[in-house]
Batch of 3 targets.
Target 1
Amino acid sequence: MSESTNQTLFPRFPSLSGKVILITGASSGIGAACARAFAVSGCRLVVLARRTDRLTQLTSELQALGAQDAIAVSADVRDAAAVRSAIASLPSALSAIDVVVHAAGLGRGRDKLFESNPAEWDEVLDTNVKGVLSVTQVVLPQMVQRDAGHIVHIGSVAGSQPYPGGAIYCASKAAIRMLNQCLKHDLLGTRVRVSTVDPGMVETEFSVVRFRGDTARAKAVYEGMTPMTADDVAEAVLFCVSRPAHVNISEITMLATDQASATTVHRR
Ligand code: NDP
Ligand code: 8X3
């Protein structure tokens, strides 16, 4: 490493202190871990999900961790009008959102497409795809107007790697992958950045939700292997957001070391 690179490396990382970060899906797993990571960096947090009790508990924790402010927003991302009105009602100190992390999402079951329930197709696509669009539609125009901001998607390896019984979930994450790429084109010429972090297996409530509360089946997903944690993903999100303003990390794919792909898993 040259001397000049060495001297400039660390001071180049911009401080995130005071930045306003909106995190969807913050009541659990990856979203909650991201909220904690940004709190430690002294950010101001807007945490959104449906479970208000969890969010209220989280905001106290975030303040204790160092967040300059933390507010809970109870909303279902499938309800575009509710999302718009919740974000419009934010206090003025939190209304100029610097970063959005789209972590709200879910999968339902592992049935073959032709044996699965179309009501679940709606639930997954309305949350994972249209929910992302609804939030982005509210915050992106103001970012473009300010010529600053960052949209971070939580995609999945499922967006590029098919697996049996994954049709709708994989399709939803493939949509996010393409949305991420198209947005980069739409935003060219602005200083607004867009990234996707695409994890493999992360042990959260994801599998419990996917298997509708069947904890034994959820636990079996990670049996004999070491999955990633929500904090591992939060670190990657923080890495994207904390690059110098002229650097856009487009995508990060991360697998558990015990995984070679979505379907190839080493179990000890
Ligand atoms: P969790 O189940 O732990 O968290 C999901 C979060 O999404 C919860 O906070 C939940 O909150 C929120 N959510 C779900 N539906 C809605 C909705 N309609 N409106 C608002 N919030 C909603 O799972 P993860 O943290 O693992 O998942 C986060 C994201 O990461 C998802 O998009 C998932 O697809 C993705 N991902 C997960 C991986 C994994 O292996 N765990 C791997 C790759 C990607 P509430 O129920 O309170 O509304
Ligand atoms: C969640 C991880 O491998 O079950 O995106 O699709 S996987």
Target 2
Amino acid sequence: MPELDQGKGGYKAIVLVICSVAALGGLLFGLDQGFIANSLETLTAHYHLTVPQKESYSAILATGGIVGALLSGVLARVLGRKKSLLLAGFIFTAVSAYSALLPDLAILSACRFALGFAVGIASFVVPLYLSETAPPAIRGSMGTLFQLMITIGIFLISLSNVYIARTVVAPATALSLMFLSITVFAALMFFGGFILPESPRWLMLKDRKQEAVAVLGRTLNRQSEIDLEISEIEQALHGPQGAGLGIIFRGYFLKVLMVGILLQMFQQLVGINVMIYYAPTIFGFAGMKGIVAMMTVPTVNMLFTFPAISLVEKWGRKKLLYLGAVAMLVTMIAAGIAFQSIGANPSPTAITSAPKLILLLAVIVYIFGFAVSWGPVVWLVCSEIFPLEGREVGMTLTTMVNWTFAGLLMANALTFMEKHGNSSIFYLFSGFCVLAVAFVALFVPETKGITLEEMEFNLRDGVRLRDLGKRA
Ligand code: BGC
């Protein structure tokens, strides 16, 4: 294959626009995901929320995400990648701006459902668009950029919500400002989206070769690069095409589908979003308030996503999954013990500093364990294990499973703690960590250092799941 030396020619300005707008897609995912933690108190003050109302407002984002993920494949195919991104950007902007007007709770919840729908679309279309439109030499790093931007989004909204909550006294004004800060980024994505070129691969799919060539002329530097890209797309279009849902009835596909589904299920059952959404509330149960309670989770989560990016290639996926699960297992037991020693409903002044310190350390190491492993690795493995013709179906279904379990936890965690005691939920999560370790050991293949084609060959050859990543 001829060498591409994008680096020497430098990248055109449009490439920067492509990456930034796409990065904004990841950022908005994070902004909406991280919104709840430090706004819940203000939301409660303004809307007088009960515990179940808090849970359902938090969780409805996930329901929207499931619907968005389900429809995103069809939208990306029918509307095209660019128009799907514009649609997501429009929903993000209009709905966050409308939420800032503080409509009644039912409408505000419908708005959060719509935000989830946009997140569901963006989380499918942004990586797809990048993999088809960014110059070949930087495609790999674009995938990890999307993951990073999610954690940066969670961090930024946590920080700005803390700042707003502390400087603006009236809950109504504070809440409007919180929604408006999301609107600013959403508008940037929406209006930035108009400058984006359409994906050349989609244009070719629609028999619009001339336009595809014109787009590549804008993003690439040399005619030879453009010709190479066009011929690769043509080859791919003549190869096996995306299969329909029927592929799930083929035995070899069903096997990897189960791996993907269980990975996504465990990614949520270890309890990450209970921490992302409710950490300030949980720290509050232990009598801890203030900046540490509000910012520890998003900060540690963002910082440790950076090393994960190089570690997945150095150590491999499975080692990281073990490391993360064991770290989360131990720390969830520690958090459970801390809450047990605090007991039920003590007055905040009666809580000694030892259990507070244990809880804080446990949460820090827990989030480190997740951010460096299960956070990025599960998405990566799910993008690697499916045979090409079933990749779209596989990724859509596994993404929907992720949102389903995320929603279930957000919708029930606080009530569960209220009913069964604060420590119970942490013991439950540690139990899921044990199951997750056993599952990784028995069924998950190591996908480092093997090409997707080799793995597909092994799969069709009947190699057992955990050996799929071994060279034949
Ligand atoms: C998970 C999200 C979670 C985020 C935290 C992602 O990998 O799928 O549910 O909120 O990590 O960084």
Target 3
Amino acid sequence: MTRLLHRQIHHAYPRAVGGEGIHLIDAAGRRYIDASGGAAVSCLGHQHPAVLAALHAQLDQVAYAHTSFFTTDVAEALGEELLAQAPSGMSHVYLVSGGSEAVEAALKMARQYFVERGEHQRRYFISRRQSYHGNTLGALGVGGNAWRRAQFAPILVENHYIDPCYEYRYRHPHETGEAYGVRAAAELEAKIHELGAANVIAFVAETVVGATLGAVPPAPGYLARVRDICTEHGILLILDEVMCGMGRTGTLHACAQDGVAPDLMTVAKGLGGGYAPIGATFVARHVYDAFAKGSGMFQHGHTYVGHPLACAAALAVQRTVREERLLDNVQARGTQLEQALHARFRDHPHVGDIRGRGLFWGVELVADRGSKLPFDPGRRLHADIKSAAMQRGLMVYPMGGTIDGRAGDHVLLAPPFICDAAAIDAIVLRLGEAIDAAIADRRAGDH
Ligand code: PLP
């Protein structure tokens, strides 16, 4: 019996009763390697002593102060910490309680930026199919996952789409990555022309596409070209790094690897590492200035923005990542993970693509490698892989609908930054067994 409306009403969830480093522990005493950080959240693993100490200390000082009355030392310190390492041009940060709220804030900031400048006619956002930006109505509105949007479509804001930048399925066989990147970015320019540049507010994109595509990085040069197109046409670039940011790809911000800085950038998940609900929207100087010289405010707000406990958690997580040089480990273990995935799945008949960066990897499953044909979506292979992995003491983040929101299966990996070499080996070993078992079960079920 439960009084909770769980995600899946008919599923019996094990109870998490403890955590220790890279492991979560259930009520039966079973240990699970958290190889996906939940959904790319737990970058420091579980029960990290530095974060627990910071939370206890903050609780003893002040647990809550509404931001329309007060600021707090801890929120200001977090702002300093984040801006000290922000993408170039960023001057301020707006603190919220998660990824969807960070995206909502970015969308409203972008609209208000143009209102402050007297450009009231601007009303369109452009984003990409197969992106995920959150589940609140505004974030879902710009999201490109057909399945998540379908039943809410009549109440979502109008949005305009271009294709994702997804080499495995969109690059022509004899096209270079660079040429594909230019071609994919040209779609944005065409869409801006179609809508009229003066009507467009912003282009919204995940730097590395996470949940819906499975850790797909941009083609070489794609994001730089996108940045130029936005600048040339006077529209804002919003990069959503809620999943891929805060060190997940081996640099603190994923866009650093593409040499690009957006006008607004969202982060969450790894920001607080799961120790408290927190997200943030980075604001570029020109956006901030438009507000400061105009209405003098951002017309937005939630009860829990800048919550002191959430700020304390995020500050402790970010200081730990920086002081313990954990991004070096993300890079080293990331290279190991990449090699181990290739070694295990290079010749696997049902693994079509392995892609990612840092400790953020996706494995795309196919029924047939030659034709890239997906498994029948009705079979929900991704769900079977998830339970086969759980049975083997492994948490991974599989998802269906990779190709178009309906067909396609992938598994997302996002292990904690504190992983050692033995943990990476164990993750790939158990993942291989889980994938093989799930596919074998399917075949057995066919007969
Ligand atoms: N943006 C991206 C890229 C995400 O991956 C997610 C969550 O998976 C969100 C936004 C929404 O974040 P939250 O679930 O914290 O609201």
